[in-house]
């Protein structure tokens, strides 16, 4: 089996309840199931990690550095000031895709710059939970597992 890391930052554990007009009605469990479904045909497993603590997210990235073929990362608000998460992702060798549920560029100005996105292999924002499905397909493509 091959593993991918699905990393979700602060406040994403309450998806479905949290501002559904912005973030949608899908729960984090729905999203994890969606990603699992997308990568199952390739024999991939999903290591899903969500935490409110940047330190725990950094630890998850370090643990996955050499045991995963890629990652899907929604850093949430840590995209703006999560410098230790950014540094951990800089040390993560496999490809990874940054995902945001909302269109960050249609929101407040302070959300328009991500400190993590320049390191990502790809960036998806503004299409809700479906963005995670596209990120999973992107990782399959980058790994050559979509053939």
In CATH terms, the superfamily is Dehydroquinase, class II
Envelope shape: globular
**Which sequence of SSEs, written as H and E, runs from N to C?**
EHHEHEHHEEH
Relative helix content: 25-40%
The order of strands across the largest sheet is 2-1-3-4-5
CATH fold-level label:
Rossmann fold
Which CATH architecture?
Answer: 3-Layer(aba) Sandwich
For this structure, the quaternary state is: single chain
Sheet of most strands: 5 strands, parallel
Radius of gyration: 14 Å
Class by helix and strand content? alpha/beta
N-C termini distance: 17 Å
CATH class designation: Alpha Beta
Work out the count of structural domains.
Answer: 1
Average pLDDT for all residues:
93
Low-pLDDT segments, ≥5 res: none
* Tally of alpha and pi helices: 6
β-sheet strand percentage: 15-25%
Number of strands: 5
What does this protein structure show overall?
With 147 residues, this protein is α/β, with parallel strands linked by helices. It has one domain (2-142): Rossmann fold (3-Layer(aba) Sandwich), CATH 3.40.50. The chain has 6 helices and 5 strands; from the N terminus they run E-H-H-E-H-E-H-H-E-E-H. Strands 2-1-3-4-5 form a 5-stranded parallel beta sheet, with helices on both faces. Helix 2 (28-40) packs parallel to helix 6 (130-142) and helix 3 (54-64) packs parallel to helix 5 (83-90). The radius of gyration is 14 Å and the shape is globular. It is an enzyme of class 4 (lyase). Belongs to the type-II 3-dehydroquinase family.
């Amino acid at each position: 089996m091959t593993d991918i890391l699905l990393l979700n930052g602060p406040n994403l554990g309450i998806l479905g309840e949290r501002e559904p007009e912005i973030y949608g009605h899908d729960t984090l469990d729905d999203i994890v199931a969606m990603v699992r479904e997308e990568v199952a045909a390739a024999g991939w497993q999903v290591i899903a990690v969500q935490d409110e603590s940047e330190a725990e997210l950094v630890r998850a990235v370090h643990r996955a550095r050499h045991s995963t073929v890629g990652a899907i990362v929604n850093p949430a608000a840590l995209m703006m000031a999560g410098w230790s998460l950014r540094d951990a992702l800089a040390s993560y060798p496999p490809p990874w895709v940054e995902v945001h549920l909302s269109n960050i560029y249609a929101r407040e100005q302070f959300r328009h710059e991500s400190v993590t996105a320049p390191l990502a292999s790809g960036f998806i924002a503004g299409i809700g939970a479906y963005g995670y499905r596209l990120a999973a397909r992107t990782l399959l493509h980058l790994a050559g597992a979509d053939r």
